[in-house]
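Hi R.,

Quick one: here's the Transport permease protein sequence you asked about.
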Amino acid sequence: MSEITVHRAISWHRIQAMVLRYWYLLMSSWPRLLELIYWPALQIITWGFLQNYIAQNDNFFARAGGTLIGAVILWDILFRGQLGFSISFLEEMWARNLGNLMMSPLKPIEFLISLMIMSLIRLAIGVIPMTLLALFFFDFNFFAIGLPLIAFFCNLIFTSWAIGIFVSGLVLRNGLGAESIVWTLMFGLMPLACVYYPVSVLPGWLQWIAWTLPPTYVFEGMRALLINQTFRSDLMVWSLAINVMLLIASFAIFLALLRSAKRVGSLLGGGE
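And here's the predicted structure, written out as tokens:
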């Protein structure tokens, strides 16, 4: 009985081994590291100068206390959290190694946890320089948001993982021909997540859809905090509740697609 319990338990040694694998892949390629820093730096400079221009011509943005730059940084946390997860998964697809992993003692939950950890590592490499650039060039201290930042970050990273698990399952089942969904799905959600404008801007029927997305609550909460100096804990609770449901659903879908991939043989192929 004890042997069965040990066998079914999550092995942190296997998770650590997978994280080390992705870490060595990341550190062995300077283009990968450069890409993690380049795009966030480019975004914060481009949008930051845009905010400076708007602030000089409209006092609203000056009073808003950097909502545009704050939205850019939070959006990058959401997008790069999902991308960091999915890229590590695609590394296995590109290397035709996924079949080997699935035939090893590695459990799906251990595999997904290792991808989550790597998404945090990739996210830190990209976003920390971004926040420093925002402070240096535009005098916007992202970390001055304080404790609410933890709620913002957790809800966004949970959403990014849920989407990452879902799109990874689609690529797993359909092969690299479905790879483009990794790069496009998040941008498709961007208008409905109300990153740069309030939900009230949307038509009434679209507002209902927007409120089903956890990031919408985060960006509304960010604007309420920076403009009105009010932390909307109710928004964070709703976002967390939806995220929990999304994570459970995405994991169930991933397992179903994994079983389907094994059944039809696409797990070993993984091609276009």
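The CA atoms of residues 225 and 231 lie 5 Å apart.

Cheers,
M.
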